[in-house]
Amino acid sequence: MIVLIVAMDRNNLIGSQTGHFGMPWHNKEDLQHFRKTTLNHAILMGSTTFAAMKRPLKDRRNMVLTSKEIDIPGVEVIHDLGAIVDQYRNSIDTLYVCGGASVYCQTMDFADKILVSRIPGDYQGETHFPEIDLEKFVLESTTDFETFKLETYVRLK
Ligand SMILES: NC(=O)c1ccc[n+]([C@@H]2O[C@H](COP(=O)([O-])OP(=O)(O)OC[C@H]3O[C@@H](n4cnc5c(N)ncnc54)[C@H](OP(=O)(O)O)[C@@H]3O)[C@@H](O)[C@H]2O)c1
Fold first, then answer.
1. Residue 134 and residue 119 in contact, taking contact as beta carbons nearer than 8 Å
2. pLDDT per residue as tens digits for the range 85-120
3. Fewer CB near the last or first residue (10 Å), C or N of the chain?
4. What share of the chain is helix, strand, coil (3-state, %, to 5)?
5. 15-27: per-residue pLDDT in tens?
6. Is 0.85 surpassed by the pTM of this model?
7. Average pLDDT value over all residues in the chain
8. CB of 38 shorter than 6 A to ligand 1
9. What is the distance in A from the centroid of ligand 1 to the CA of 4?
10. Quick one: CA dihedral 41, 46, 51, 52, positive or negative?
11. Which residues make beta-bridge pairs with 46?
12. Quick one: which of 74, 69, 118, 76 has its CA closest to 95?
């Protein structure tokens, strides 16, 4: 199963070069939700997102997509996105795609589910989430957290 997990403001903004770890906001509750959801699963991110994060996340299979030959302890360097998508597409194991925008764009067609933390407000930044095609995904549920709303989109059968 492939799940995209993302936090965005009401304008689909997800990233800011000058923000805290590349994020336009600092939302502790959302980071806890992200941790709880992805713990003990595989996570995949682009090299720009990893550079902003600085280090691999504990107790997860950390995969970083790049065209470069790099060696980072605790990280599996991925050159072939298609192979990872094929591995998880029809698997009971879940791959959480953690961004950034370029990786979300390339994996949205294969996603079974999209978890959106909707951060209230308008923030400054330059990176946006691609539009969710509502002919392909339906908003299955919304869950209120104290500081954001979790929207769960599932692929229409
Ligand atoms: N709000 C959120 O939930 C959230 C989540 C994640 C990220 N973000 C933000 O999003 C921004 C980054 O997004 P981004 O789109 O600029 O960058 P990104 O997707 O994180 O990384 C892009 C890089 O990934 C590598 N890459 C992408 N597709 C590839 C492929 N098919 N094969 C090989 N390598 C591939 C390339 O690295 P090389 O150049 O090394 O080859 C590319 O330059 C940051 O501001 C980050 O903080 C926000």
1. no
2. 999 998 999 999 999 999 999 999 999 999 999 999
3. C
4. 25, 30, 45
5. 999 988 899 999 9
6. yes
7. 97
8. no
9. 13
10. negative
11. 65
12. 76
Q: What is the CA radius of gyration of the chain?
A: 15
Q: CA 99, 74, 81, 41: dihedral to nearest 10 degrees?
A: -70
Q: Which pair of structure tokens corresponds to residue 113? A: 């589910």
Please state, in angstroms and rounded to a whole number, the distance separating the CA atoms of residues 121 and 1: 31
Q: Is residue 116 within 6 Å of ligand 1 at its C-beta?
A: no
State which amino acid sits at residue 87.
Q
Residue 132: name the closest of 149, 98, 107 by CA.
Answer: 107
Q: How many percent of the chain have pLDDT more than 90? A: 96
